Amino acid sequence: MKIAVLGMGAVGRGLLRMIDEKDLGITVTGIADSKSALIDKNGISAGELLAAKNERGYCGDKTISAMEVVTRADYDALVEVTPTNAMTGEPALTFIRAALSRGKHVVTSNKGPIAREFCSLKEMAREHGVQLRYEATVAGAIPVMHMLEHGLAGNKVQAVLGILNGTCNYILTRMAAEGLTYDQALMEAREMGYAEADPTYDVKGTDTAIKLVILSNTIWNGTAQLEDVSITGIDQLTTDALRLAEEQDHTIRLIAEAVPEKNILRVAPRIIPKSHPLVVEGSLNAITLETDMAGEITLIGKGAGSVETASALIGDLLFLSG
Ligand SMILES: NC(=O)c1ccc[n+]([C@@H]2O[C@H](COP(=O)([O-])OP(=O)(O)OC[C@H]3O[C@@H](n4cnc5c(N)ncnc54)[C@H](OP(=O)(O)O)[C@@H]3O)[C@@H](O)[C@H]2O)c1
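Above: the input record for the complex with NAP. Below: its predicted structure, written as tokens.
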């Protein structure tokens, strides 16, 4: 399988590292970061790309653009791992459309374009006889899309509940375990590298809501948008609320929930029994699917990370080549 990769940040580098270290049968024939790009139909060494990026801060030739990689390189699948823009999906949306219109598969970890333009991108892929795969956009390493597509094929999914943001889960876990205030737990999450300098997108529930939109549209072939989700973040939660929940053997988690029959599409802090399988600790993610035949299934795993996200991308790539 020949791939062109857009983005050499944490995720792009994790992917290149795994391609370099493991015998995956994946060859990089195009690559771009924000400042430069490289195209070579004979293949570019992933190890050398990582070394070059490390040494000088960019990967290739500054006269070549990312769009030229998409439109000129010789590849089977475009791996789109540039930053997420939740409002417009750009520039990823333009890259993805250009690749699909060339009849190339697309594999992405970028939530923006999938949440914004799910139906039109799926339709475009279908028209060109290729696939759009996005396992890595929701819950990092957890293979929920593969599970829905294969293991649970034929089931009717009645509801989905998830803990989809590791930063929020880390903060809530620490507030409950140590009696920390929200601000103290957030500061600790920043020190541990779990929270961004500006954590708004995570703690206000937006990131979780985008992932819920992607999950829900995938399961029910829907057209939900971010604006359809009722969202409450965790930034107003008090230590007292968590202590009260703890006293009753419950805890509080930021839960994403979609139940079409009840018209529920929401993200909110919820009180749940500590024994519930969704109650995972630290930065872990968890997803519970309620189905008609298989009953309730919960998947737990790492929701982010360089190699963990690469695992989801590679799963999609090898599915395409298999
Ligand atoms: N990190 C995670 O654990 C994780 C998990 C799941 C999903 N994701 C998603 O995966 C994507 C990548 O995440 P990340 O953590 O790797 O991001 P990141 O560290 O910010 O890296 C983004 C990369 O994209 C490049 N880039 C920016 N604009 C570009 C453009 N116009 N053309 C080509 N390349 C461009 C950047 O170039 P420079 O190197 O030149 O700055 C950088 O290499 C995001 O959409 C993110 O939401 C991340």
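Notes for the reader.
The chain has twelve helices and twelve strands.
The pocket of NAP is lined by residues 6-12, 32-35, 66, 81-84, 91, 109-111, 136, 140, 304-305, 309 (CB under 6 Å).
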